[in-house]
Design goal:
- Chains A, B: InterPro entries: HypE (IPR011854), PurM-like_C_dom (IPR010918), PurM-like_C_sf (IPR036676), PurM-like_N (IPR016188), PurM-like_N_sf (IPR036921).
- Two copies of one chain form a homodimer.
- By secondary structure, chain A is α+β, with helices and mostly antiparallel strands.
- The first copy, chain A, folds into two domains: 8-150, 60s Ribosomal Protein L30, Chain: A, CATH 3.30.1330; 166-323, PurM-like C-terminal domain (Phosphoribosyl-aminoimidazole Synthetase, Chain A, domain 2, Alpha-Beta Complex).
- The first copy, chain A, contains eight helices and 14 strands.
- In chain A, the strands form three sheets. A seven-stranded mixed beta sheet of chain A has the order 9-11-8-12-10-13-14. Chain A has a four-stranded mixed beta sheet with strand order 2-7-5-6, covered by helices on one side.
- In chain A, strand 13 (312-315) and strand 14 (321-323) form a beta hairpin.
- In chain A, helix 1 (15-29) runs parallel beside helix 3, helix 2 runs parallel beside helix 3 and helix 5 (201-210) packs across helix 8 (279-290).
- The longest helix of chain A is centred in the N-terminal third of the chain and has 18 residues, at 103-120.
- The two termini of chain A are 30 Å apart.
- Chains A and B meet through helix 1, strand 1, strand 2, strand 5 and strand 6 of A and helix 1, strand 1, strand 2, strand 5 and strand 6 of B.
């Protein structure tokens, strides 16, 4: 490359833009579709239903224990696609880059995206790069959009919870958010806290293989498990009763939450899912999840109830009940 | 709304995020799919090929003569989809918003997006909002992703140019870029220069109706007509010979270009297309374009030649020939 930092001309659509794409992007993500370098990707798509999702990633810092903005941007969008039960197939990636960003940083992020793309078994088929003047964005933002195919017979929606359904969590909560926060605050005692960023499409495929009867499913990112379950309860006009003792939290994460006065129920996850399923298939689905590396700690954490409409209620380890409300303020900006 | 400016909590995924979506976004863009507020949209998609495109819009200023970041973000992505010959159907929109942005500004942008969505006959089916701290982005960035269906028998690609093909331009060049630049520079003599932002899917449908035999088609945005034609020539390993006198430029735009020492061939357009078609259908396609409001000034500006491989050459009004090269530097950052 001619320069060692990003120049405004790298976003001009001219020769330096072309060099950025051919030297940095294509060696990582090249495939028959992307290599055509058209302004849009044209891909085969068989009959049926298409799942579409988009997310902007603005995480600060760019690199954190357990991951970086690159794998987060891939895994986050893969996860949003597969939470509908869809098989993620194609991704689009749009970069907003601050002038002066060292190319070595961009390169490291792209390597990480490359690994994540391979890990999830998807393809980036189109993209965009914009460069803004120094001070007009903070280093690097990545917006990824995902397209997937929804299998026949699968109809997953936050509005489909029914009384008696079981609530399944795939593993420990609050890892990602606490990894960002403790790395930002430089808390050395919390150095073992790692982000859980991971692609969940393999786990979802296992779950659907044993039963397509999943009612609702979501990855509890911003706002954490509390927010996702509140959205489920509101959409389906039911109550959700949780057992606090059943919700797994790693000791080091619980410790960091206690020191900082943060409730792990509201902290972002990036490699976990919560599913609401009919009681009769719950154990079978949990067993299937536990056979997958990303679901080894899968557990039933509660159930759907007909009363307490719109509320999420937690039975605490002391036997009391407390309402787990929607968060009002921002706990952790730029967590993803 | 509880606040008059954007708070970090508007990006938290909590109650204020929900309010932002329900009070500002859904009233503008609501449809059966978006209203479900899932993390991904699931839409019908019939058998065939899917066109996918993504673009981040970082234009500065947000509002400019003839448009704003809102209609630009819709029209730009609609245009990238339809340049493949596809019918644009679904859009995803991701917002990165600076803390403290007046809600009135966001509201104005959303109204403009609403009009653009209706004008193009598409739907926004999913989206995302992130809020970053003051100073971490410049007011508002919007990334839009578009999905369309490619009709059978249509195969448009920059690699399909053949010697003898005609190059058709849909109208005047350099309007958008010069509108941004003159408004940024506060050049009062250029106050009549207006952006050409417009959705081109209707025009493309007209063109395909008379002939599906379009070889290549693109909207010459960043880098202008010169860059697009250079990409065509390189992809297809042919030469392109242009007639300078045939390329339409509005007098006020030409005047502004001359004062600022800018070549209109390199200036961005946001409502124009260039198509390369077999000679035998060229006149029929031009006639069809002229019957559409966005193609009234459509004109043949040149042809594809077998020699001069990879080069774009212009016969000037004085009879000389000059090479129209790819731009190297950034002429106008944040033009879109």
């Amino acid at each position: 490359m001619e320069y060692e930092t990003i120049q405004l001309a790298h976003g001009s659509g001219g020769r330096l833009s072309a060099e950025l794409v051919s030297r940095l992007f294509l060696p990582r993500f090249g495939n028959e579709t992307l290599n055509r370098l058209e302004d849009q990707a044209v891909v085969d798509f068989s009959q049926g239903r298409l799942a579409l999702t988009t997310d902007s990633f603005v995480v600060d810092p760019l690199f954190f224990p357990g991951g970086d903005i690159g794998d987060l941007a891939i895994n986050g969008t893969v996860n949003d696609v597969c939470m509908s039960g869809a098989t993620p197939l194609y991704l689009a990636a749009a970069f907003i880059i601050e002038e002066g960003l060292p190319l070595s940083i961009l390169h490291r992020v792209l390597l990480s995206m490359e690994n994540a793309v391979k890990g999830a078994g998807v393809q980036i088929v189109t993209g965009d790069t914009k460069v803004v003047n120094r001070g007009c964005c903070d280093k690097l933002f990545i917006t990824t959009t995902g397209v997937g195919r929804v299998p026949e017979g699968v109809n997953i929606s936050a509005a489909k919870l029914e009384a008696g359904d079981k609530v399944i969590l795939s593993g420990t909560i609050a890892d990602h958010g606490m990894a960002i926060l403790t790395s930002r605050e430089g808390l050395s005692f919390a150095s073992r806290v790692q982000s859980d960023t991971a692609p969940l499409n393999g786990l979802v495929a296992e779950m659907l293989r044993v039963s397509p009867l999943i009612h609702a499913m979501r990855d509890p990112t911003r706002g954490g498990l509390a927010t996702t379950l509140n959205e489920f309860a509101a959409s389906s006009r039911v109550g959700i009763m949780l057992e606090e003792a059943a919700v797994p939290v790693r000791p080091e994460v619980r410790g960091a939450c206690e020191v900082l006065g943060i409730d792990p129920m509201y902290v972002a996850n990036e490699g976990k899912l919560v599913a609401v399923v009919p009681a009769q298939v719950a154990d079978k689905i949990v067993a299937a999840m536990r056979s997958h590396p990303l679901g080894r700690e899968a557990v039933i954490i509660g159930e759907v109830v007909a009363d307490k409409q719109g509320l999420v209620v937690m039975r605490t380890t002391l036997g009391a009940q407390r309402i787990v409300d929607m968060p009002v303020g921002e706990q952790l900006p730029r967590i993803c």
